[in-house]
Amino acid sequence: MKVGILGSGDVAKALAEGFVKHGHEVTLGTRAPAKLADWVAKHANARVASFADAAKFGELVVLAVKGTAAGDALRATGVANLSGKPVIDATNPIADAPPVNGVLKFFTSHDQSQMEKLQREFADAKFVKAFNSVGAAFMVNPSFQGGKPTMFICGNDDGAKKTVTRILDQFGWETADMGKVEAARAIEPLCMLWCIPGLLRNEWSHAFKLLR
Ligand SMILES: NC(=O)c1ccc[n+]([C@@H]2O[C@H](COP(=O)([O-])OP(=O)(O)OC[C@H]3O[C@@H](n4cnc5c(N)ncnc54)[C@H](OP(=O)(O)O)[C@@H]3O)[C@@H](O)[C@H]2O)c1
Questions:
Q1: C-alpha dist (Å) from residue 74 to 41, 175, 195, 210
Q2: Residue 30 phi/psi, 5° resolution?
Q3: Does ligand 1 come within 6 angstroms of the Cβ of 29?
Q4: What is the average pLDDT value for the chain, to the nearest integer?
Q5: pLDDT by residue (tens digit) across 2-22?
Q6: What are phi and psi of 85, to 5 degrees?
């Protein structure tokens, strides 16, 4: 697939490497393309552009920007470049405030997630929450003693979730579909849970698994 990734940080780069590894074409979107010049020189099949051009390029779009900037980044991207496309939302609504005893502070509430807000504003984009509750280093084909980890996803569009599930299969994950966009109220805080061992004890090498 052609994949437009909005972002230039660890998540954008890790996912870009994963997509390229599995034969997809990638364009990263950023406000400052020059900062990715070295990275791009080392990665064939990956290009860098503006947010708008990266999304225009993608049949699949990935949102991987700072949580507080997600709305602004999508506005800069432009509704027309997102319309009708699956958009993987890897963001977390982490507030600009310090954690308390290892627990991150969110700017959302239990009844209103980041992805619901984005889905409402960009109604024609097909958001799927994924990749938000594991560290960037483990997003692509991670190897855990406990076996394949589980990626919890949600979103309103079944076709978009099928596309994301195929990507997750390639990236070495089992997928647990938690339903519509409101399930992001439960999936986004998994990021808090995932970060607690890291923030308290500097342990960052784990992922979640759903046992049945
Ligand atoms: N780091 C992880 O391991 C991890 C794991 C799971 C989920 N996440 C989530 O994934 C997202 C990306 O995380 P990250 O660590 O890769 O990077 P990050 O440092 O959280 O975000 C960097 C990106 O945010 C964009 N950005 C910042 N301020 C902006 C603004 N005012 N307007 C538009 N764009 C802005 C930057 O754009 P420019 O390129 O233009 O500077 C850059 O692409 C976050 O929401 C994070 O919570 C992170």
A1: 26, 26, 26, 32
A2: -155, 160
A3: no
A4: 98
A5: 999 999 999 999 999 999 999
A6: -100, 150
User: Who contacts 160 (Cβ-Cβ below 8 Å, separation ≥6)?
Assistant: 86, 87, 126, 127, 128
| Strand pairing category for 60-63 and 150-153 | unpaired
Q: How far is the CA of 15 from the centre of ligand 1 (A)?
A: 13
DSSP result, 130-155: -STTS-GGGSSS---TT-S-EEEEB-
Q: What is the pLDDT of residues 40-93, one digit of tens each?
A: 999 988 999 999 999 999 999 999 999 999 999 999 999 999 999 999 999 999
Query: How far is Cα 3 from Cα 14, in angstroms, rounded to an integer?
Result: 13
12 lines ligand 1 (CB under 6 A): yes
**What are the start-end ranges of the E strands in the chain?**
2-6, 25-29, 46-49, 60-63, 86-89, 126-129, 150-153, 174-177
Can you give the C-alpha Rg of the chain in angstroms?
16
Three-class SS string for 49-79?
Answer: ECHHHHHHHCCEEEECCCHHHHHHHHHHHCH
Q: Quick one: CA dihedral 46, 49, 52, 56, positive or negative?
A: negative
Distance CA(6)–CA(9), nearest Å, equals: 10
Q: Which atom of ligand 1 is nearest to the CA of 36?
A: 39
Cβ atoms within 10 Å of 150's Cβ, excluding its own: 18
Ligand 1 atom 30: residue of nearest CA: 69
